Amino acid sequence: xxxxxxxxxxxxxxxxxxxxxxxxxxxxxxxxxxxxxxxxxxxxxxxxxxxxxxxx
Amino acid sequence: xxxxxxxxxxxxxxxxxxxxxxxxxxxxxxxxxxxxxxxxxxxxxxxxxxxxxxxxxxxxxxxxxxxxxxxxxxxxxxxxxxxxxxxxxxxxxxxxxxxxxxxxxxxxxxxxxxxxxxxxxxxxxxxxxxxxxxxxxxxxxxxxxxxxxxxxxxxxxxxxxxxxxxxxxxxxxxxxxxxxxxxxxxxxxxxxxxxxxxxxxxxxxxxxxxxxx
Lengths: 56, 213
Hints:
The complex is a heterodimer.
Chain A: H1 5-10, E1 20-22, E2 28-31, E3 36-41, E4 44-47, E5 53-54
Antiparallel strand pairs in A: 1-2, 2-3, 3-4, 3-5
Chain B: H1 5-16, H2 21-39, E1 46-50, H3 56-64, E2 69-74, H4 77-90, E3 95-101, E4 113-119, H5 127-140, E5 141-152, H6 157-169, H7 171-174, H8 182-188, E6 192-201, E7 204-212
Parallel strand pairs in B: 1-2, 1-4, 2-3, 4-5
Antiparallel strand pairs in B: 5-7, 6-7
Helix pairs in contact in B: 2-3
């Protein structure tokens, strides 16, 4: 999954609206505030709150 | 956890991802074309489509906005993935992103978009969810940014009756006609209506509305 830096900069957590960061292994986007991880499946970010898991 | 209408809608559209483009071909393409004309968007903008479905309108937007950035979201991960694959193949190198997103919780910073589109979405939402969605759309639009909505328009009594029956039998697929209530919801969201047209295709009426933040 290639999310450009420009696109990543406009994304936020859908719940708390804080910044999200691409996980080092590219498997998801992690919110820096609530620590929810939104998975990337079939090359698309699944930014649904009930699909996220909290990772400390 | 109880299954909500949102969950059911997602499941229905996940299953329909492969065949849904037919409805666009027969009923929606003319309204999509008119929506693009009325929106006033030009190449180079940052554009969001909420509820891309199987991606017919999204393809138009990407084609029209090759130097810009076009982002599409849909509640159904299958629909979003399908649109993503098609766009990657058809427009390699274009600045696009498809995501599975709930329209009531948009994952974008404030004021990021010049234009937002939503076609045949509001019919599937409760009044409360339409208000939440409008509020989110307003939040992500820049000042003076444009919202373009395509709604199922009112037609004959027979059409409206059939639609109501369809909505009762399969609410997660058909939804209900809301177009007469939408203008006041737009104004309640602190946006100003700037254009309105009704488009017919086959027997199917669509109402295109544009509004400014």
